[in-house]
Amino acid sequence: MAENTKIEWAHHTFNPWIGCTKVGPGCDGCYAKDLAEARLGVMWGPGAPRRHTAASTWKQPRAWNNRAAKLGIRYRVFCASLADVFDNEVPAEWRAELFQLIRETPHLDWLLVTKRIGNTAKMAEAAGGLPENVWLGITVVNQAEAGRDIPKLLAVDVRIRFLSIEPMLGPIDLTEVSDDSTALDPECWGDCACDSLYGRDAGCRRNGGDGHLQRKIDWVIVGGESGPKARPMHPDWARSLRDQCEAAGVPFLFKQWGEWEAALDRERQDPDWRADYTNDYVDRGKSRWLNLAGGCGFHGERFHVMRRVGKKSAGRLLDGVQHDGVPA
Ligand code: SF4
Q: Are strands 302-308 and 317-318 parallel, antiparallel or unpaired?
């Protein structure tokens, strides 16, 4: 799929500028910070100047756009892998320049992923409005962030809304996240079961209407963490999102396990689990028991041991299946 990017869900990557500030637990192992500081000389954090990229970099999307037009296809462009488009410390005129470029490349779908969804509406308006060919995504890493940020994403007018749940650091139930209908619509009775995956519930007494209550998440991307300090992702967290998406008919893409693979995933009653664990994992110092809350230890009737094997070896199969769902 990728043309000039290793990212599984995009054809191209474009960085309009470089630099950012960490804002939450999903930023702990920010690869962009390490790369930018070590190799590009761009420092991270509040007050550190962001660096606008070169004119030659800004020419690339126009070439991709021309090629897509000639081939009669669309390319997905991941915008700002080394920054956040809605960072407060980026000059407003840079964002206006970016949005103008996005408008002038209509054969590209621009994937903007932010950890600052609260800034989006105001900053987009200041930049002339979100262009029609933007897909807007947010990164959430646990249920608390999902509950806090998904309603804000659903409130934004945009064609495709998606979640980048990477690094996944805890269980997430998207059907528990409301679209905050009562806040968005004073006429909502607030006693039905609209949620972020299904949009308006079929039983809603105002069903049949139109407007923002129909908004829902259109795409879910899930991945474990990579890098030297990577934290393991419990297999049941990823399975649960896969199953939630399948039930709701929402495209699901499993990007990677990250550094850790599920090495032991057994019923408590399995007579061989202890022998397997001792023989294969206990001496290596690279394994970790993981419970459903993300901490060490047992839970319920199953045992899970995650083993650090490196991103490449861990791969991107979930229960033997590669998930590459993308919105049509
Ligand atoms: S928002 Fe993204 S680029 Fe910025 S510090 Fe966090 S992980 Fe890094």
A: unpaired
